[in-house]
Structures are given as structure tokens and as C-alpha cells.
Design brief:
The protein has about 500 residues and is mainly alpha-helical. The protein has helices spanning about 20, 30-55, 55-75, 80-100, 105-115, 120-145, 145-150, 155-160, 165-180, 185-200, 210-235, 240-260, 280-295, 310-325, 375-385, 405-415, 425-445, 470-500; strands spanning about 390, 395, 450-455, 460-465.
Length: about 500
């Protein structure tokens, strides 16, 4: 199963949480390269012992020449470029394989809502279709995953697990003998499609559109199962994998020779590696770990720590599929009014003190510097400039009429001397909002008419019909509109004495 550590690093802190991940063993870099690191360090120490203790002067000179050559020309191997491109391809392929794994939830919901009836005939149709869907997936998994193959080595184990019946096993074995070279994962999907058509003939499915939708989902499920087989058949080209592997091992073979401490290298500052080649070990640690990432993820259906747990997916899918089409078929909780029924929608959702809601992001022009709103000179001069703008001796195409300046002048006069009448506009707006919301709610309730009818099986159900608005509601709208206009006129008339003063 893929090693999950997201919960440990969900929030960054002063002490980095990622440092704690370095102490983990399962799925770690230490687990995949410790053998190779031990072999490399052993080879390095062996060459150092041979050079320092077992060679004569001529042998030392020959070894120093080889070491100098490997040190100066080891950078000719483009290991970083080759390795980075290879791991990028493998990582992208690894995630695409996981997203290709099909899930039967969508088909189960369609089957539950389309195949009606609570009798045994309808129930066995729904359960059999989903059993065939899961059987198709299990057959594909046994072809690409060693763990699943060891769990279901033959069709007998599928019969014991409940995915297959004895008569169905005989049909598949007969076709296996007739066509042994081709996989038979598509056969359960064909059987499921035939059951869908039978349900339509028996009027368990009441329209052809539902049949088409179910068949499309079955084909999509079969296509994704086929893509998993394609990923298994067509891997990353072998030549590229060989190039990366040879480049990595050749680079560190040359490093084991080129990074050796030699007597004539003391003047070059190489005396520090006489006792322990720490930078060489770190270089091996990083590059070899990079290679092992690609080797581990190139086939995510194996038995590595980061491979997909397909056995868990099989168990989960069959359980959820049966639960949807049988246990939860046409069942739902009691319909009740929600807590925001009277308010229509919540203005703000509740939250605890430990999880306070952050403020919404500010727009790009929130802190933009603009001219002062009360500056008459800047505003009027702008309008004057636009009105007098001309091009090539012709009047400008865009002009402002004089009545645009009246509201600006009114605002300037009102800002000079406040009115003696004080009105709480916020309270007035909130009162009007409550009245309007109440009118809309009652108007919608008055427009509804509820009738009780019975379906073909005798089960009662409700039908709500909306009728045109009555004369009462129409006259109420007219009164509200006239009242609004009168308020606007009275407010404008109240401003005129202030301006004269």
C-alpha cells in the first residue's frame, strides 16, 4: 500500500515537520539503497586498502593515473539529465495508472435508480450486474498484480469468494479452450449488458435513455480495465531503462576510482578524503535513491511499499456496490425542513473558536490610490477636459451632458452642511429587506397547489403545480412599486431646502 504521510505534514511549524519523516523506515530511501550503499562503500574501502598497503611504487603510479583520469572525465556522463527525464516519465505514468483504476460506484448508483422494484427478480438483477462488474475488475487484477494472483490463483477461489458461479466458470473455461491466447475479462460486462436489456423488456427499466446511460458506463468501465492491461503490456522502453541503469552504475564505478585519496593529490586539497569520503557517499546516496524511485514506481501493481493495494480495492468495491444496489435501494432519511428554512439561506455559517474563518481575499484594486471623493476641482476638471477634447479639428465622439454634473454638485453641497433630519438608513434597509423576503415567501406558497396521485404499483406520491399569480399579488406588487417611487420623490424634495440654505 502507498505510504501516506500527509497527516504528519498538514501544517508547517517553526520546527519543520518534514524532518520527522527522515526517521521513517517503510517506504524510505534507506530501505531501498542500503544494500547498494554497503557494496559501494565496501568497494571503495577495498580499493583504498589495495592502494595503500599492497601496491609497490609502479603500481601506485598506475593506480594514480587511472584515478586522475576517472576524476577529470567522470562528468562526461550526463547522469542528472538522463535520470531526471526518466524519473519524470515514470512518475507521470505511475499516477496515470492509479487514475485509470475503475470504480463501480457510478454504475451502482445508475443501476439502483434505473432498475425499479423491490421483488426478488429486480433485486437479483441489480446484484448480478454489479457482481459481474466487480468480476471483470478482479480478472484484470489477477493478470497484472502478483498479490491478487496469489489470492485468486484459479477460478475456484473466485467461486469461493462469491464473484463467480459454477455455470459461469464452465462458460469461461470453454472459451478459454477455444481461444486460449486472449483474455476473457470482457465477458462479465457482456453478461451485465444482457441483463440490462432483459430488465428493459420486463419493464424494470422504464425508458431507453436509462438503458443507454448504463451501457455507456459499462463500456467505460470495461475500457479502463483494458487500459490497465495496456499499461502492463507496454512498459517504458527497455532501451531507456538500460541506459539509465548503466549510466548510474558506471558513474559510481568511476567515482569509486576517481574519488580515492592518492599521495600526489595532497597538494590539491584531497587530503580530507583520506579517512572518510563523505561527499562521495552523499552523492551515491542521492543518485542511487533517484534511480530506485524510478525502479520502484515503474510497476505500481507489484509488492513494493509504494505499490497500490489492489486487494483492498477489491474488497471495498464489492461491499460498496452491494450496499448501494440492495441495502440503500430507494431509501433515504426522512424529509424535514432544514434549520435555514425561514431565512432561505445562511448569511454566515457557524464555526468554533479554534477554526475561525479567514477573511475573503482582497481584489487587485482594493488598495488603489484614487482622487479624493470630495475634491470638486479634480472631478469637474476631468469632465471639462473630456468635453473639450478634440482630435484633428473634429469634436470628440464621447461627450458628457450637463446633467451629469448635478448629482456631483448635490453631493458636494450636502457634504458642506449636514441635514437636520437624521435617518437610520441601515435600519430602514434591513426592514425593507425583511418585508420583501416575507412577501416573496408567502407569494410562492400561495402559487403552489399540491395533489395526491398513485403510480402503477399503487404507491401514493405528491405533485406540486405552480399557478399564475392572482390579482391580489399583482395589486400588491403595484402598491410596493408606487410606494418606492413616492419615497424617492420625498427624499429628493427634502434635499432642495438644504441646498437653498
Amino acid at each position: 500500500m502507498t505510504v501516506t504521510y500527509t497527516s504528519s505534514v498538514s501544517t508547517s511549524s517553526v520546527i519543520n515537520n518534514f524532518l520527522g519523516l527522515l526517521a521513517r523506515w517503510r517506504g524510505s530511501i534507506y530501505k531501498v539503497i542500503w544494500v547498494h550503499l554497503f557494496v559501494f562503500f565496501g568497494l571503495y574501502c577495498l580499493l583504498a586498502i589495495i592502494y595503500r598497503l599492497l601496491m609497490n611504487e609502479e603500481g601506485k603510479k598506475f593506480f594514480e593515473a587511472i584515478s586522475s583520469y576517472c576524476l577529470s572525465h567522470g562528468a562526461l556522463i550526463p547522469l542528472s539529465f538522463v535520470m531526471g527525464f526518466y524519473v519524470t516519465i515514470v512518475m507521470k505514468r505511475w499516477w496515470e495508472q492509479y487514475t485509470t483504476i475503475p470504480w463501480p460506484d457510478g454504475i451502482a448508483i445508475l443501476i439502483s435508480t434505473s432498475i425499479h422494484g423491490s421483488d426478488d427478480r429486480a433485486r437479483v438483477m441489480r446484484r448480478t450486474i454489479l457482481r459481474y462488474v466487480c468480476l471483470c475488475q478482479v480478472i484484470v487484477f489477477t493478470m497484472i498484480a502478483p498479490r491478487v494472483k496469489r489470492r485468486f490463483p484459479t477460478y475456484n477461489q473466485l467461486i469461493e469468494a462469491g464473484f463467480l458461479l459454477e455455470n459461469e466458470k464452465k462458460i469461461i473455461e470453454t472459451l478459454d479452450q477455444a481461444f486460449p491466447s486472449y483474455p476473457k475479462h470482457w465477458m462479465p460486462i457482456v453478461w451485465a449488458a444482457s441483463i440490462v436489456m432483459r430488465a428493459r423488456r420486463e419493464n424494470k427499466i422504464r425508458d431507453d435513455y436509462a438503458v443507454k446511460t448504463i451501457i455507456d458506463e459499462l463500456n467505460k468501465f470495461r475500457g479502463r480495465c483494458g487500459f490497465l492491461l495496456y499499461y502492463d503490456w507496454v512498459s517504458v522502453p527497455l532501451v531507456y531503462t538500460q541506459v539509465v541503469t548503466l549510466a548510474t552504475y558506471a558513474f559510481f564505478l568511476f567515482s569509486a576510482l576517481g574519488q580515492q585519496w592518492t599521495e600526489n593529490g595532497v597538494q590539491d586539497g584531497l587530503n580530507v578524503v583520506r579517512y572518510f569520503p563523505i561527499l562521495t557517499v552523499l552523492q551515491f546516496f542521492f543518485y542511487m535513491g533517484w534511480l530506485k524511485v524510478g525502479e520502484t514506481l515503474i510497476n505500481p501493481f507489484g509488492e513494493d511499499d509504494d505499490d497500490f493495494e489492489l486487494n483492498w480495492i477489491i474488497d471495498r468495491n464489492i461491499t460498496v456496490a452491494y450496499c448501494i444496489v440492495d441495502e440503500m435501494h430507494q431509501e433515504h432519511p426522512e424529509l424535514v425542513k432544514d434549520q435555514y428554512w425561514d431565512e432561505v439561506f445562511p448569511n454566515e455559517m457557524p464555526y468554533t473558536s479554534a477554526s475561525k474563518r479567514a477573511e475573503p481575499p482582497s481584489p487587485s484594486t482594493a488598495y488603489m490610490d484614487l482622487p479624493h471623493k470630495g475634491s470638486a476641482h479634480s472631478t469637474l476638471s476631468t469632465f471639462k477636459f473630456v468635453n473639450s477634447f478634440q482630435m484633428d479639428g473634429r469634436p470628440a465622439g464621447l461627450t458628457f451632458s450637463e446633467n451629469l454634473l448635478a448629482p456631483i454638485q448635490d453631493d458636494l453641497d450636502s457634504s458642506r452642511e449636514p441635514s437636520q433630519t437624521t435617518i437610520d438608513f441601515n435600519e430602514l434597509i434591513e426592514q425593507r429587506r425583511r418585508e420583501r423576503r416575507s412577501r416573496i415567501r408567502h407569494r410562492f406558497v400561495d402559487l403552489r397547489s399540491t395533489y395526491f396521485r398513485h403510480d402503477s404499483f399503487g404507491a401514493p406520491y405528491k405533485v406540486t403545480v405552480l399557478r399564475p399569480p392572482s390579482e391580489e399579488s399583482f395589486s400588491e406588487n403595484q402598491e410596493v412599486l408606487e410606494g418606492t417611487q413616492q419615497e424617492a420623490m420625498s427624499s429628493s424634495s427634502s434635499k432642495e431646502p438644504d441646498k437653498k440654505d
